[in-house]
Amino acid sequence: MVGKWHLGFFEWSYTPTYRGFESFYGFYTGSEDHFEHESLGILDLRDDTLPVRDMNGTFSANLFTKQAVQVIKEHSSSRPLFLYLPFQNVHDPVQAPQKYIDKYSFIENKTRRTYAAMLDIVDEAIGNVTRSLEKAGLWDNTLFIFTTDNGGRPESGGYNWPLRGQKDTLWEGGVRGVAFVHGPMLKKTGVKSKELLHSTDWYPTLINLAGKKEGGRVDGFDVWETISAGKPSPRTEILLNIDLAPKKKRYRGYYEGAAIRVADMKLLVSCPNTSWFKPPELCNKETVSN
């Protein structure tokens, strides 16, 4: 694993190399400085379990790309490889090397300009990782998945237009994401799926595709036939959250609330009204809902 963990570090047993990963290079928390690798003034960059103290000034996307390429280069093709690479981009703080920001000088909004630079550099990084897989002779037998985890936050440059809402809300702009899958094992290529899928479906799908069976009862479904062959999804609903009576606001001012999606219908309970946010280049105003 290379990149962002953010799934607990209270005890060592919560961290990546104690949770099944043979190696880890990255950080445990979130929203840390992309250059200094600090959160709340505390260094948060690890090589397995050891702190990395000599990378101050190196942008995280470049750092993680270099490490991922090294993992691929040193990997023996006689063994299977699972590489989990959650980049820090395009998460806040909104930062990027100046040469990438300068490429987007035509964007008037400063935050949006830097956000575009962050997206540019992670796009370049993914290209470098792809080329390293090709060079190592692994690409033609690789299933490549690119996916997001949640919607963007307008104040940090991320817009979800024309979807309603943003990250930290249960409206579609907060919970609906996009992904693409590439690999020779796909039965159909160049197609778009509009089936109902959930992030928990990746685990059983990948485990079964690798020839194993997941142990015990899991939340997700094996959706490989949906992704690769265009068949209907075995999933008919998504439970997004179950806080029916939130008593206080979250740390960013949003209530938890409850929401469930069933087929083409969605029910939201205790979810404050929110708006549609257009990106500045379209219209720097909110469209307030009634």
Automatic annotation (TrEMBL):
<protein>
    <recommendedName>
        <fullName>Sulfatase N-terminal domain-containing protein</fullName>
    </recommendedName>
</protein>
<dbReference type="Pfam" id="PF00884">
    <property type="entry name" value="Sulfatase"/>
</dbReference>
<feature type="domain" description="Sulfatase N-terminal">
    <location>
        <begin position="1"/>
        <end position="211"/>
    </location>
</feature>
<keyword id="KW-0479">Metal-binding</keyword>
<comment type="similarity">
    <text>Belongs to the sulfatase family.</text>
</comment>
<dbReference type="InterPro" id="IPR047115">
    <property type="entry name" value="ARSB"/>
</dbReference>
<dbReference type="InterPro" id="IPR000917">
    <property type="entry name" value="Sulfatase_N"/>
</dbReference>
<keyword id="KW-0106">Calcium</keyword>
<dbReference type="InterPro" id="IPR017850">
    <property type="entry name" value="Alkaline_phosphatase_core_sf"/>
</dbReference>
<keyword id="KW-0325">Glycoprotein</keyword>
